[in-house]
Q: What sequence folds into this?
C-alpha cells in the first residue's frame, strides 16, 4: 500500500458516499489523512524524498513546515558572505560610474562650448570722407560725433580716442606737416606743464610723432598724444590719438590701433 491513501466511492461508513483510505499507522491501522489531490508536487516530493545539494539525508514529510510542503525543499542560504560583498560592491561601482560619467559630461560640455560659441567679430570703422578704415579691437567702439571740429570720425575706449580727418590741401612736406599738427593739438588737447617728444619717425606713406605731457598738480596724470599724417596718392589724412592716463599696455594698444589704419 502506498504512503498516501486513495479516495474511494461507495465505501461504507461515509455519509456522502466517499471514504478516505489512509496510509498505515504505527499499529497497522489506517490513518485518516487525506491525500493532497489539488497539489501533486508534494506527493512526488514525498515519494522520492527531499534531496539536498549538501548531501543531507532525506527529510521526513511530517517534519516539514507547510511552506515547504507546498513549494518543496527550502533553498540553502549559504550566500551571506557573497551577498555582503555585493551589498557593498554595487554601491561603490555605481559611485565610480557616476563620477566617470560626470567627468565625461563636463569635458564634452567644454568642447561643445568652445566649438559652439563664436569668436567676437572684429569691428571696423570706415570713414569715407577721410578715405580710411580702422580695425577696432575689443573694448573699442565708433563714436557718434568727434570732440574736435574738422574731424569726420572717432573711435573711443575707456580714457582713449582716435580721430580721423581728411587734409584738403596738398602736403608738400609730410614731416614738417606732422610736426606742426602735433604742436597744434598738443596745445589744444594736452595743455601740459611739460611736453616731451617720445617718438618721431617716418612711415612708408607718411610720418608719425608721439608726445608725453606731464602736469605739476596731483590731479592730472601724464597724458599721451600721437599724430600720424598719411599721404596716399595725393590724398592726405590726419589721425590723432589721445590717451590719459598714460599706461604702457594701453599706449601699445593705441599705437597698434593707429597702425592698423588702411
A:
Amino acid at each position: 500500500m502506498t504512503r498516501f491513501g486513495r479516495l474511494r466511492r461507495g465505501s461504507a461508513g461515509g455519509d456522502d458516499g466517499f471514504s478516505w483510505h489512509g496510509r498505515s499507522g504505527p499499529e497497522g491501522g489506517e490513518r485518516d489523512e487525506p491525500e493532497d489531490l489539488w497539489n501533486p508536487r508534494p506527493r512526488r516530493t514525498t515519494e522520492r524524498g527531499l534531496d539536498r545539494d549538501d548531501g543531507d539525508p532525506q527529510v521526513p514529510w511530517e517534519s516539514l513546515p507547510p511552506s515547504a510542503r507546498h513549494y518543496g525543499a527550502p533553498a540553502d542560504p549559504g550566500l551571506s558572505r557573497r551577498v555582503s560583498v555585493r551589498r557593498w560592491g554595487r554601491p561603490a561601482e555605481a559611485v565610480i560610474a557616476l563620477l566617470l560619467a560626470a567627468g565625461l559630461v563636463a569635458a564634452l560640455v567644454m568642447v561643445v562650448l568652445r566649438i559652439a560659441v563664436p569668436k567676437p567679430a572684429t569691428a571696423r570703422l570706415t570713414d569715407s570722407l577721410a578715405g580710411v578704415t580702422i580695425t577696432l579691437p575689443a573694448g573699442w567702439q565708433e563714436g557718434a560725433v568727434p570732440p574736435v571740429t574738422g574731424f569726420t570720425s572717432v573711435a573711443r575706449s575707456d580714457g582713449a580716442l582716435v580721430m580721423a580727418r581728411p587734409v584738403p590741401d596738398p602736403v608738400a612736406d609730410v614731416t614738417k606737416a606732422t610736426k606742426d599738427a602735433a604742436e597744434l593739438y598738443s596745445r589744444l588737447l594736452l595743455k601740459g606743464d611739460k611736453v616731451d617728444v617720445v617718438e618721431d619717425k617716418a612711415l612708408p606713406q607718411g610720418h608719425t610723432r608721439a608726445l608725453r605731457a606731464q602736469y605739476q598738480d596731483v590731479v592730472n596724470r601724464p597724458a599721451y598724444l600721437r599724430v600720424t599724417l598719411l599721404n596716399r596718392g595725393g590724398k592726405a589724412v590726419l589721425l590723432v590719438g589721445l590717451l590719459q592716463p598714460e599706461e604702457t599696455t594701453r599706449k601699445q594698444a593705441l599705437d597698434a590701433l593707429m597702425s592698423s589704419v588702411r
